[in-house]
Write a structure and sequence with these properties.
Elements lengths: L4 E5 L1 E6 L5 E7 L5 E3 L2 E9 L6 E9 L2 E8 L2 E7 L2
Antiparallel strand pairs: 1-8, 2-3, 3-4, 5-6, 6-7, 7-8
């Protein structure tokens, strides 16, 4: 049984360093829940394999679990599991 996913746009709090590089720190979910990004593991240009879209993909560690956060132009999204 495969899990269905949808593209969920989220708010992201981030730091910008002296060279203009983004460092996402927190994700605010649609319902207002806030998740701290413990660590950025990897950053690359990639498409989502679960939903339509892509851009800069950040592989992040949140509460000990790896997840993808995508920067698509000026918007940010995650691959959210359908309930």
């Amino acid at each position: 049984m495969s899990v269905q996913c949808r593209k969920a746009y989220v708010s992201v709090n981030l730091d910008v360093d002296q060279e203009g590089v983004f460092h996402p720190r927190y994700i605010r979910w649609e319902n207002g829940l806030i998740f701290q990004i413990d660590r950025i593991l990897y950053k690359c240009r990639a498409s989502s394999k679960k939903v339509v879209g892509g851009g800069i993909r950040y592989t992040v560690l949140i509460r000990g679990r790896e997840s993808y956060l995508f920067q698509e132009g000026s918007k940010w999204f995650v691959e959210a599991k359908e309930t």
